[in-house]
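Q: Two folds, back to back.
A: First:
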Amino acid sequence: MNVRPTAEPTSASLCPIPRAGMQGIAGILLFLFLILAASTVGIGINAAGMETGTAITVANLLSIVSLVLLTVYMWRVTRTAKAMVPLLAIVGVALFYFTNSVIIPAVFCGLIFVVAEGAFFLAVMSRKHLLWFPLIPIVAYAATLAISRDPLGATAALIPFPPALALAWGTRSSAEKEDGPTRVGVICAVSGAMLLSLAGVILLVTYRHLGSLSPEALINGIGAIRTELIEALASTEIPDDLGPELKELLEAQLTYAYLQNQIGRLFNLLPAVFVIAVNFLSASAQIILHASLRSFGYGESLTERVRVYRMSLLSCIAFLLSALLAFGEATTFSSPAGTVAQNAFLILLPGLAIAGVFRILGGMIRKGARGLGCLFYLIILFPILLIFAPPRFIAIIFVIFAALEVIGHIISSVMSLLPPPDDNPFDS
């Protein structure tokens, strides 16, 4: 099943990905699974608007089949990143728990699969076999249209393909060009492509419902959604069997004025939540792509430039500025500057926190056995904290890791500008 391609590296740090393809049935299975996954995404997203019981039944059955087959495929192929499959499974179970539907986890799994394995198809297949790739979105769109009967809504099946193109292009460019994008740069490119494709589908569906895409129509549509949400929560009946203290607390929090303030804050931070979710999908797809490249014999192309996760100095400075603005006394959630700063802070926080964790782990590994012993306890402790610790405590941990990365990155950048000790004019 594995292919062992060979490629002459262009330099000590580069090793272009050869277009050696996949042997035998592996390529056919990948082609069919990509169609299945893209169709699941399209039909699952359109399930909310389906009225017939037959269509909903088909959507549920397709979701179950997709979850089983795609999970088995990823578990089998991504042998070098098996931790990702349990992580995605945990997220999928959480989505099922909160939505009580198997369709949402299937859409989540299918979206990541098409982005990751679609990028793998585009990155390694020979130019002759690449001609088959356009059939995947065409068949997925046709399948979605046949079930949903909605030409505009069926475009949801096309959402994963722009980010798959971006991931394939970024990964190949990183492996073959000295000035190619970094690993984080590729994640940003994939997230940008996914945001654009999602925005395109949302605008198409919005135009059908509102009849216009003018700023005024969009603002009025968002305002109407917010008002309906506030009124629905404000009209919630509080059970009489609750304790007096809890009942009094709920009554205070379900007033129209309180809900209007809190929902307003939530809507202000929706851009950050949306971008963080897309970044998570993009980073997960990238990890699965790297694991697939190793599994099929392309591991030599995953050089340090492609693998190393490192945030830029510009992101560290932007994080500091957004933190000062977001938590400054002069700005609030209601001010435009405060809202922008809050969103920027939340968007940069996860990436910098992860970089801070890698910085700490790298220091521990360099310390040898003693550092590895501490690393072992951290690996055990971290999942326990995520499960049992209160959200505010977890947020503080993330901020600490991000601050460590920002401080370390800035110090390293300043030290790199100083002359070496032998050339220091202040040495006696």
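A: Second:
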Amino acid sequence: MTKELKQEFTLRITQANKTQLITILYEMVLLYLEEAKAAIDADDKTECKAAIRKIRGCMDELIASLHLEYELAQNLLQLYLYINKELTQANLHFQRENLDHVEFIIEKLQKAYKQIEGQDVSGPVMGNTQTVYAGLTYGRNDLTENIAAPSGNRGFCV
């Protein structure tokens, strides 16, 4: 993942509600899956293992966010555990097919969450973050982002 993408995800995460956080995690998983597949194609086991480790980190966050008192969350847990199994197989056998299975599932889940994202009218999960306005000023080849009301306390409140 490039530095610019990391900055974009960081900005989106600070301003996201609960549903948007899930879709962002799905997007990150899909990006890391592409990195893992590219590493397999390039026969680079080290990069593949690193990408799979990052996917596992995202999956751990998704599992931790489940409210298991609901039946739907229990079903999602089973899917996430299956994904972890597929990631283990891909890591052990260096096979692209396992990553294709994971990608198929994540794409379906992301599509479903994108549809319900508009229905979630709750505010951002994080509080005390700075507001960033992009595009107010720009140069010939760049876009300037301005931070509104910078304060001395930049800690995040969750």
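Q: And?
A: The radius of gyration is 18 Å.
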